[in-house]
Structures are given as structure tokens and as C-alpha cells.
Specification:
This protein is α/β, with parallel strands linked by helices. β5 and β6 form a beta hairpin. α13 crosses α14. Strands 3-1-2-4 form a 4-stranded mixed β-sheet. A 4-stranded mixed β-sheet has the order 7-6-5-8, sandwiched between helices. Strands 9-10 form a two-stranded parallel ribbon. The chain is built from 15 helices and 10 strands.
Length: about 350
Amino acid sequence: MVSSTMSANQPRSRPVRDDDARWQAVQRRDRSADGVFYYAVRTTGVYCRPSCAGRLPRRENVQFHASCAEAERAGFRACKRCRPNELAPDARQAAAVAQACRMIEEAEEHPSLATLAKAAGLSRFHFHRLFKATTGVTPKAYAGAHRGRRVRDALASRDSVTEAIYGAGFNSSGRFYAASSDLLGMTPTEFRAGGGNNLIRFAVGECSLGAILVAATEKGVCAIEFGDDPEALVRALEARFPRARLVGGDAKFEQLVAQVVGLIEAPAHGRDLPLDIRGTAFQQRVWRAIRAIPAGATASYAEIARRIGRPRAARAVAQACASNVIAVAIPCHRVVRRDGSSSGYRWGVARKEALLQREAAS
């Protein structure tokens, strides 16, 4: 049955529930629907974004269009308030932040906050808040993460640490060595040696999900891995840190392992576990958002993408989840498909579902 409120020039095969959903999005002024469709009001001759803040029209006067061009071919003009034929405010802000990221990445010296804000046409305060809301990190932190990548690339390709210092954009060795620990997680010499002399304690035990390996640096836990073969877990750790000093855990370290195993049984108590998290700026934003998901709850990859200000990056969020090597403490098992079903998990979908069932029950 076709609703009597549908426009005569709409395809009659379109399910009524589609337009019902669109109308509900208009009533909610749903920003996530912007760009997905547009609505036109026959009594005013204007078409708008779903999030338009203008007065809500009567449903019988509304028809929907897939694009601005389609709405204009039907004889409607763009709303002057929400400007649907221009970039959305969120898109304009995202473009300004993307431009700032390029400036940071291409500059020899980190641009000042004032310089970045001026290029974006915003005040320093507004720009700083916008940049952090969009990327999840401050401009200074983003520059630090980018410089860290440059340092790692330079140390791998240059003949000496001194050449790497200047190749990465530092204008003095003093500034480089002051920042090297935060940038690399170890000294430059240790990094060039493949993590040599970098002490990592580890232990392998058993839990309800099978074998579990816990490894930690002086900063905190750097790996929690599940598996069926304890020896394979140790070999994988050795492969990740081929030149580091891997030392079996002592009695004190066993307490940390017990805390991790306890986290599997009582997931709500894992917030205070010290972590040594290493990843790109984007991965760290994703992992930070995942750690905010409470035990017993889930979020979709698309939801996480929206929370970090990258609504179109659901696939990249899934890749960040797959790159996580700290199981449970960074609870990527709480990230599911849009329909709520489990998807891939680094340590097996069966373990993911077991963790979710346990958290839901508790």
C-alpha cells in the first residue's frame, strides 16, 4: 500500500518505512542523516538538510530527495538557513582541521597554535577546542605523534643517530634527547638495535579463555594475548621485540598477571591497570574511545568512528581494533557490527562472545 502523503513523482516501489525513517530523522534534526537525503517543503518551495534548525513543516507538505540536484530539478531552492548545497558546518570544520594536520606534517618546525588558528580563520581557543574534538588529541600532541613517526623512519634509514636527529626536523640534539623517550618508548640507540636492552617482563598462565600471556615494560602492560599454545604466544612476543631483553616475571610480576586474569572475571575493575600503549595518533584515539565503553555495553564500529569525530572511518576503526595487542584492558571485544552481532576478533570470535556474555551476566 502506498501512503497518500507521498509525492506523485516518487517511485511507487519505495517502501513506506523508508520515508517514515527519514521523517523521524527530520523530527530529531539528526545530523548523521545530513548528506544522506534532503527534504523539500511544497508550501515554501525550499529544500533543507535533515538537521535544519528551521521550523518543522507539516508532514503532508514534505517530500524527500536523494541529492540537491534532484531537489532543484523538482523546482525547489536551497534553504538559506542550513545551506544544504554547501559544505555542512561539520565538514567545513573537518576540512579546517585536515588543513592544519597537513601544515603540521609538512612543516620543518611545529607551527605555533596562533599560526594554525589563523590559517583556519578561527581564534586560538576555538581552534584548539575544535582540533581536539575532531582528532582526539591537541595540536601539540598530534605534532608529537607525527614527529615520532619521522624519528622512527629517520633512525631506520640514516647512518647515525646524529643524522636522524636533523633528518627528523630537530634543530638541536638536546631537544631530541629530551623528547626521545616519549617519542620512541626507549633510547634512540636501543630503538636502532631493535629494542635491545629494553627490559620486558612477561609470564604465561591459564585462564578460563585458554592460555594468556602478559608482558610489561617499566611504564605498564604492553601486551595481553590469548591463545591455545603457550609457546606460540612467547614466540610471537619475541618476534615483536627481537632485540629486547625478555625476562620471566618474578613474584611481584605474578601479582600483575593475577590482576589481569581477575579483569577477565570482573571486567569493571580494570580501569586502574597501568598500560604502555603504543600506536599511531589515530589508533590511540580509537583505543581511548573503546576504553570508555563500560563493561556490559557495546558500541558499533560506526559509533566509535562518530565519537572520535571521523564518522566515515568505521573501516579504519575496525583495523585499529585488529591492531590492538592489549586484550580486555583495551576492550575491543565490546565493539560489534551495526546490527549488534560479533565480527572478527584478534583472539577468536568465540572468546569475544564469551567475554560479552560474561560481562552481560555480571
